[in-house]
Amino acid sequence: MTSAEPLLKADGLTKRFGEFTAVNDVDFTVQPNETKALIGPNGAGKTTFQNLLTGKLSATAGTITFDSDDVTEMPPHERAQRGIIRKYQITSVYEDETVIENMRLAFRSRASSPWKLLKTHDDSDIRDRIEELLEIANLNQKQDTTVGTLSHGEKQWLEIVMAVGAEPELLLLDEPTSGISVGETNDTVDLIKEIRSTEDVAIVVIEHDMDFIRKVSESITVLDRGEIIASGTIDEIENDETVQQIYLGEAADA
Amino acid sequence: MATTDAPVELKSPASIAKFAGLLALVALPLFVSEYQVSTWSTYLAFALLALSIDLVWGYTGLLTLGHAAFFGAGAYVAAKLLKEVPAVPDVAVVFLVAPALAALLTLGLGWFLFSADVKGSYFAITTLIVSIIFESVAGEFVGFLGGFNGIYGIPSIQVVGFELTATMSYYLALGVLVGSYLLLRLLVDSAFGRVLRGIRGNQERTEFFGYDTQQYRLIVFTLSGAMAGVAGSMYATMDGFVSPPLLGFVLSTQVVIWIAVGGRGTLIGAVFGALLIQYLNSTLSDVLINYWEMGLALLFIAVVIGAPQGIVGLLSDTVEGIRTNLESTNRSDLRAGGEADD
To answer: Helix, strand, coil % (nearest 5) of chain B?
Structure first.
């Protein structure tokens, strides 16, 4: 993979629900190991866009290229196999299982031939790596805790390190700070920075908290009403008049 | 370190209980009449059916109310072939043809249901309907399948011209049950089994980590169908009589209740629940007559409300609680005077 070749390339990506166009002719590229932020007010189409990338929804028009392959029609599990892994906005983990079992499930996903997994009864090969990731999420002491009893923030961090454990090339983080406290948000910032510095992975953070974005990413794309209205560095975006209008408008509503 | 030995030592109550149960089943023919041995053989066949359902429902979270259809299909094919086609060896009929047919049925149905991502109550209802269809079809084919009168006079299994006695059939059924249990134990304790629990707990999350959950569900459903087929064919040779209710939804739902009472998603709970309730049914229904059904219903409601994890789950939680207590006592003994970190 050459650096000139983008890891992900969405070309004219469009999704219509009947008359309503949720995502309209979006071009979006992610380079290997790059961290990008995707922002936009509620209803801008951020989640729909992600659903198109991961295969939860199929595109009405346009193409998605990943690692030089067309993945537009590929089912979700095959895209994940290729390295597109998402963390959901509403935490999606295995509530009835322990932290360590959650991690193991995520870690084994790349070797996903059922026959191979049938023969796997020993998890010592992945233990060190799991502990390393749980350590940066501050969850190492809670390996045997049932996930359902964790705090909201802890579940968010768990899902993030689980996603990292699935060996992604592209990690989609959908609102990693939604519903958590300021203190926990700072921990989330540290966690994402740590992942950026230690892991070989491109990250797209979907957020509407500008302060948070500023701390984790240099490059921003702004989505509004299904279209990309601005793209650039933090400074460029913050001084962009259209963006200011949208965001001031939203702040006034909130 | 003392604490490393402790779990193994304290884990044994469960293994001791399982071993004692197995010993009791092995010794059973020594203490009861031949007629009762035959009856217990059929209990074992139904326990195998329960085991197959627990894999699909207990571990994968797919409530099947139609497994009797595959059990009954195995029973009917064994009945027809054993009675009318002596050329095919009995062992091949019971252990190859019957499970192959049942597996084919579950493979076809599963492919249809899982590619349309039918799950939850829709899955339960669809499988229930399949069971009802099978039951009425068997009732309609009077000439070929005996209609509502079924097929009777099915011979016991013959091995190289030698017919198995009731006791031998019993041990065969016990062997198959124990073997199937161990096989499934190996399966659910593997990384494969973890994926099944992942599908049960959060199918979409599992899918988006890269697991082809459709494939996993199809494998499990087909394997479970084959097991139900063997259970059915063994039942036919042991009871000597098959009729449409063996395919029907009443049997399907009964077995689900046995599993719920015994403890869903534990394998041993399915076997325990199946044997316990069938035994209580035979002893108590004579004494209590109609009240037995009501008693069973009350037991089911009590378990669902009081111990949703079933009797086995309740027992293991109790043992686990005692163990944790003991461990923490041990630890505080060891650390007397030391720091109290964890």
So the answer is: 80, 0, 15
Tell which residue, A208, A180, A149, B189, has the closest CA to residue A160: A180
Among A54, A94, A118, the residue with its CB nearest the CB of B190 is A118
DSSP per residue, B198-248: HHHHHHHHHHHTT--HHHHHHHHHHHHHHHHHHHHHHHHHHHSEE-GGGGS
Q: Which two tokens stand for residue B28?
A: 């059973």
For residues B72 and B85, what is the distance between their CA atoms, to the nearest angstrom? 19
Q: What is the ipTM of this complex?
A: 0.90
Residue type present at position A14? T
pTM as predicted? 0.89
Q: Is B320 on the interface with A (CB under 8 A)?
A: no
The answer to whether A80 and A109 are in contact (CB under 8 A) is yes
Question: How many structural domains compose chain B?
Answer: 1
Q: Is residue B21 part of a domain?
A: no
Q: Establish if B240 belongs to a structural domain.
A: yes
A143 touches chain B (CB under 8 A): no
Per-residue pLDDT of chain B (342 residues; tens, 9 = 90+): 333 444 444 457 788 888 999 999 998 999 999 899 999 999 999 999 999 999 999 999 999 999 999 999 999 999 999 888 888 888 888 899 999 999 999 999 999 999 999 988 999 999 999 999 999 999 888 878 888 888 888 888 888 778 888 899 999 999 999 999 999 999 999 999 999 999 999 999 999 999 999 999 999 999 999 999 999 999 999 998 999 999 998 899 899 999 999 999 999 999 999 999 999 888 887 777 778 778 878 888 888 888 888 888 888 888 878 877 877 776 665 555 444 444
- CATH code assigned at B52: 1.10.3470
Task: Locate A155 and state its tokens.
Answer: 């579940």
Which residues form the domain of B142? 2-8+36-332
Tell me if chain B has a CB within 8 Å of the CB of A104: yes
CA distances from A71 to A10, A111, B37, B328 (A): 10, 20, 60, 53
Whether the Cβ atoms of residue B248 and residue B132 lie closer than 8 Å to each other: yes
Which tokens sit at B141? 């084919």
Angle at B19 between CA B15 and CA B23, to 5 degrees: 170
Closest approach of A23 to chain B, Cα-based (Å): 21
Residue B27 lies in a domain: no
CB contact under 8 A, B195 and A110: no
In a domain, B287, yes or no: yes
**Residue B21 and residue B13: Cα distance in Å, rounded?**
12
Residues A199 and A164 sit within 8 Å (Cβ to Cβ) = yes
Which of B320, B321, B300 has its CA nearest to residue B311?
B300
Question: How far apart are the CA of A123 and the nearest CA of chain B, in angstroms?
Answer: 9
